[in-house]
Specification:
Length: about 200
Amino acid sequence: MGLYVAATDRVANPALDRVRQDVARRLNVVPPTSHAFLWVTDFPLFDRDPATGQLASVHHPFTSPHPDDVPLLDSAPERVRAQAYDVVFNGTELGGGSIRISDPALQSRMFTLLGIDEATAHARFGFLLEGLRAGAPPHGGIALGFDRIAMMLAGASSLRDVIAFPKTTAARALFEGAPAPVPPKELRDLHLAITGQGM
C-alpha cells in the first residue's frame, strides 16, 4: 500500500502531517503515556512568495543563516538553512526560536534579499542596525507555548480545554462579550471608520 501526493511542499507537507497524525491515532501506535521530545532544525531561511516570486523569510527577517550556507545567499538563497529550531513533544510543537543576526552588514544583506531597499530598512529598522553596529552580541531565544504545555500535561486534545476563557471558532470571547461595538467617539479619536458589515 502506498500514498502518493503531488503538490508543492507548502501544500503537501502540512496535509501529509495531518494524515500521519490521524493514522497514528487510529492505529494507536503512540502510547498515551509516552514522552517523546525532539528538536526540529535546518529549516529553510527563505521561501518564495508564489504570487510575486519575491523571497520571503520563513521565520522572520532577523533569523541568522546557517554559517556554512552564507556563501549561498546570493547564488542559491532557497538552499540556505536558518539557525531556527522548534521543540516538539509527542508530535505537538511546544515552542520555537532562532539565533538572530548580530552582524549589521549581514542584516542589511538580508533586507536587500527580501526586497527591502536601504531607505525603507533605515526607516523601519534603523534602530536595530545602529544597535548591531554598536556591538550587540550574538543572541537568540525560544518562545514556549505554555498553553500547549498545559494541554500536553493534562492529556487534553484541544487548547480550549486548558484555557480559562477560550474564544469560539468564530473568534468570539463569550465570557467577556467580545468583540463589542466600538463607541463612535473612540473611532473618531483614533481616526478610524467602519466601512463594512461586521460580525
